[in-house]
Amino acid sequence: MEITDLTAAEARVWRAFHKGETVDFREGDAEADDPAGGYGWGPERTVRASVLRALLVGTAREDGEIPMLRLSGARVTEQLRLEYAVVDHPLHLRYCHFDESPDLYGTRLRQLNLRGSVLPAINLASTRIDGPLRMSYCRARGTVRLAGAEIAGALFLDGAEITAWDPTEPVLQLHQAVLGDGFAAPGLRVRGEVRLDGATVGGSIGLDDAELVNPGGHALCARSLEVRADVRARGLRTQGGLDLRGSRIAGSLDFTRARLSNPGGTALRASSCAIGELWLYRCAPIEGRLHLRRSRIDVLGFESEVAPGEVLFNNLSYTALNPTEPAHLRLPLLERDGDGYVPYAYEQLAAAYRHAGDDGAARLVQLAKLRRHRATLSWPGRVWGHLQDIAVGYGFRPLRAAVWLLSLLAAGSVTYALHHPHPLKADEAPEFNPVFYTLDLLLPVISFGQEEAFAPTGGYQFLSYVLVLTGWLLATTVIAGVSRSVARQ
Fold first, then answer.
1. For residue 254, which of 273, 234, 274 has the smallest C-alpha distance?
2. For 203-252, how does the pLDDT look when each residue is reduced to its tens digit (9 = 90+)?
3. Where are the domains of the chain?
């Protein structure tokens, strides 16, 4: 393209490019400079995409100069096509209005800055960028494609808006992308699915106060995501599911003050994940299922009232549980597990209480586990379980057996003190002692010589049978409960 073919605005951009100077067409009026209305900008701030392409891929460098395209407040007509091009110059197109969707598929760039621009869509799939990609406060009415992109620096999407809602494909595509630094997107607004499957982020992901809306589908699909620092999503609002299955997050996954909603489906799925810390603090109650099966989490932090009506905790392992809450607030959560009775979930909760030094709460959890297990047994097992529970609380209430024994001892002693049983051999019988006679009946392995010397009759004989049978049951139950307790120790 010859220089004589350029408009005045384009000639200004052409001259500034070779010296790396900035061309800013903005007038200082916020309303007039809003790129959303850029379709009405006149020729004095309009640049054809073919001119930009000629500058970027077909212009030789002048001696002593560092070319750079630094353009602000322009209307870019035609389609900017740079597929597979190698662009050696930093590319800044800030607060611009694009009539057509730029296509930079497979392009090699030094740096790209699209801050505040408005685009119908953009294709940056498989692009390689040696520095950061800045799309802060961009507004896209169609799909933003970054699948397979390699960005040496960070990706900035803070305050950006992607308003497309295409049910056939994700509207923000970052699957298999590699970010050498972080992904900063606080305040991001997306209507449609965000796809991060298989992406690698060398730094942190920031989604504070973002809003991801895709009712009935995935608001965020990030399977097998690898983050080498933190995922910070404080104040995040979602309509649709968050799917993080198989992800690896070295630091924390922080949903403090978040509002996660996917009624009738899974609101948060973080199954088979390895996460340093998971925080669900001061959140609104989750609307939808919480799925954490098979994950390994060092610190699991959530308040019991945040948990939804259904959870999936089978084979979830964690070291510490925060905040410290009484066991009776945590236990109902395990009763709502969609897999039914999950022994491992009870053992993990008990271990977390022991780790915190609260042995009393750990015992309550294990007692609840045994009671829940009892409901899964046949009727003989349930009867035997009830006896162990009533007698000694499955070994967690050993003093309860002493109370039963003392009560029976008192009842038997009073009864037989008022109604002495007849001696079997009057001339050989020892002096009758109602207390030791009752002890002889109750304790199967100890004999005080009273039971063999006296024989009650009528209803008192029936009482002696009851005491013998109860004594055996109590003794067997105590032994079973104590053995279980010792085994746990």
1. 234
2. 999 999 999 999 989 999 999 999 999 999 999 999 999 999 999 999 99
3. 3-374, 381-488
